[in-house]
Structures are given as structure tokens and as C-alpha cells.
TrEMBL record:
Pfam families: DUF2069
Name of this protein: DUF2069 domain-containing protein
Keyword set, alphabetical order: Membrane, Transmembrane, Transmembrane helix
InterPro entries documented for this protein: DUF2069_membrane
Organism: Janthinobacterium aestuarii
Transmembrane feature ranges: 12-32, 38-57, 64-80, 92-112
Superkingdom of origin organism: Bacteria
Keyword Transmembrane helix attributed: yes
Amino acid sequence: MMHGVLHKYFHWGAIASLVTLIVWCVLWETVVAPLQPGGSWVVLKAAPLLIPLYGVIKRDVYTLQWSSMVILLYFTEGVVRGYSDTNATSAMMAWGEAAIVCIYFVCAVLYLRPYKKAAKRMAKELLEKVNKVSIKK
């Protein structure tokens, strides 16, 4: 029972952190610490995050898999800008971005863990069946 509850929390954690990251990026580049006064085109970096949102909400395993890898680009941006931005507010926003990405990554990976175990188990069973058929011939 606890496994089911944790599984649900990991799913909700992935959704919440992805939505938070989208809002965080938009606010960062428009209001809090834009690269240029009044905002810039950098706000468009939040747009690709909308692509996996529907799949994450619908618990699509494939979407969660590829998005957990793509999201690492945002982690990289957060770390690079956290170290290099001269504006302290922007650097703080960058570290916040990296932290949100870490939350998403951990939630997505832990949500996918039972699916990966089941796939390994099924592959092993199939391989055993194939080997039995090969031996009989």
C-alpha cells in the first residue's frame, strides 16, 4: 500500500515541479531579473517545457523518460548562470531553477522505477522462453 502512495506522490511531485519550473522561468525572464529591462526573448526558454506537460500529467511513461533527460539542459543553464551571472537576483533565480530541476528529475526517476523493474522482469522471462525453445530444437 505504501508503495502505491509513494508512487502517487512522485507523480504529483513531477507535475508540481514541472509547472513550477515553467512559472519560475517566465517570472525570472520577465519580472524578477530579466537580461534586459522590460524582458527579453529569453523567456521563450519556458516554451519547450510545455511539450512534456500533458504527458507527465497523463502518466505517460515514455514522456517521463525522455523529459527526465531533456530537463537536465535546464539544470545546466541554472548552474552556469548561477556561477556566472553578475546580478545577484538572477544568480539566485538560476540556483532555484537548478533545484527545481533536481526535484523533477528525482520524482520522475522514482516514479518510473517500478516500470523499469517490470520491464526487466518481462525481458528476462521472454529470454528464458526463447532459450527453452532453442534448446528443444
